[in-house]
Amino acid sequence: MNGAGAGGGDPVAGVYEAVGADGLRAVVAAFYRRVPTDDLLGPMYPAHDLVGAEERLADFLAYRLGGDPRYLETRGHPRLRMRHAPFVVDRAARDRWMELMAAALDECAVAGDARERLEAFLGDVASFLMNRA
Ligand code: HEM
User: Fold this and answer.
1) Which residue range(s) make up the domain with 106?
2) CA-based radius of gyration for the chain
């Protein structure tokens, strides 16, 4: 039923099951380990609340991929474009975000069909969040 990736429906159906709740948290942790030392993204994130930022992204992804809905309960409707409005999200920032995420996915050995579809989904959201030419 899920996971075929063809024939319409949710393009990330089955990804949550394939990567697992713990796997997803590990990916987000690996992403945030790279953020503070990144010359472009590091300064954008709250140095005093990286643990909170990690939790917000992990909760969002779990919720969006069909797992635990805690994000909705704690943060409300995502409104991600609005929540990224304070930051300069240009092509360079978007590409760097995806670079760090790809490295995190590599580190956590997320591979195959789930990797492809998760990365495509994240790339689409990242493009949607660009707010500068
Ligand atoms: C395109 C490049 C991106 C940049 C430069 C960027 C930057 C940021 C920054 C600086 C924050 C604030 C950190 C915090 O305190 O939570 C943030 C929050 C967040 N970002 Fe991104 N982000 C990008 C892409 C994405 C993508 C692709 C997603 C989802 C797939 C995402 C989901 C989130 C979420 C869920 C939050 C927390 C929102 C909240 O509840 O307040 N971001 N982002």
Assistant:
1) 15-128
2) 15
